[in-house]
Amino acid sequence: MKVSGTANQPMNIAYLAPELGALTSTFIYREVGALRKRGVTIALFSTSRPSDSQISEEALAIVEETCYLYDAPAHNIAAGAARHLIRHPLRSGRALALLVRDVLFAQTSTPADRLKMFWHFLTGCHLGMLLEQSHVEHIHAHFAHVPAAIAMYAAHMAGISFSFTAHANDLFERGTALKEKVGRAAFTAVISEYNRRFLEGRGCLAERIHLVHCGLDVSRYDFRPAPPENSPPLVFSVGRFVEKKGFHILIRALALLQQQQISFRCVIAGTGPLFGPIQAQSESLGLAGCLEMPGGMPQERVKAMFDTADVFVLPCVVAESGDQDGIPVALMEAMALGVPVVSTGVSGIPELIADGENGLLAGAGDPAALAQAIRQIMQDSALGQRLAKQARATIEEHFNVETIATNLESLFRASIAMQQQTGGTE
Q1: Region 389-418 average pLDDT
Q2: At CA 135, angle to CA 134 and CA 140, rounded to 5?
Q3: What mean pLDDT is reported for the chain?
Q4: CA quadruple 45, 47, 48, 52: dihedral positive or negative?
Q5: At residue 123, does pLDDT exceed 70?
Q6: The CATH number of 12-215+400-422 is which of 3.30.300.20, 3.40.50.2000, 3.30.420.40, 3.30.2350.10?
Q7: CATH pick for 218-398 out of 3.40.50.2000, 3.20.20.140, 3.40.980.10, 3.40.50.620
């Protein structure tokens, strides 16, 4: 995508994401912050509001300014959509034609997804009205499922361009109308080359797809000068208790370490549907004395755990449903802070971790290999320090949010310029 226009020209865009402000959206609002530092005006929208227990202190200001679309009653959203449809009859006719085409022909994960398109269309029309009132020039959605669908219809009704970032579950398990979304978007950002190949394999336009990593504000992550002196060593992991995180494999690896009479303490933070089964599994394997599962943690507590951990482990697997991680932000955070990491070669993770260079990779679903990698770092402090140092360099060079914001700003400016030249949406 070629950029035209003036780089210093004011730009007014919108961001749309699910549950903006939740613990799992940290990378999104930090990306917004980096763009704002570059002078980009950004209006924030979200589908749902996160629960109070899922909001960290740093996200309170984000929650305060975000417009949560589903806060409005359904009849208000429908009424707002109807007013916007009447106000723009030509756009409305074209938008309705797109909806009908999508309902009839788009590839969906389940038949129910076709019915949901009608609601996404109405919500998009309502959002289009809000975007027009705010003089927004472009809307960017994070996640290729619901947010991208709403943004697609909203942009059409507002007469502006749109784009979206594709991550993991939104592609591998909940991917709906991906070919249509990529084809209509000014650009699609993917967080890994793996995701690029996934979309291209489904017939999406390769020239519309750009690699844009998720990243960290490296200035917020102080590289620790020396590893902690824990006795026994502390193994830390954090994430949602779902199959793709591989916590059931970590539990089996810990049991193997215990059988080998390796001393350790492990903390696995997070919540989710598999919390109870994982807890029961750990108790059946006799890990009660060395494993803690404290539930969800705000960002501040997670940071404190990273600071004291000897090794961070995230043993990702491909779930039976096909769902898998992208490039987990938790791995980036550990690497930025100087915590040696152990993970697996699933999805885009090998694009972040080079085995033996800036971390260790075990075979996905292999508890013995995972136990060996954890033991290797716990018993070889020189190895851990070498991996940690190189990991920090990797984050600074390739996963720095400042660099990512620069790339995104260029793509946004090119999208707006192209929209102005063509004079309308599809």
Answers
A1: 96
A2: 85
A3: 94
A4: negative
A5: yes
A6: 3.40.50.2000
A7: 3.40.50.2000
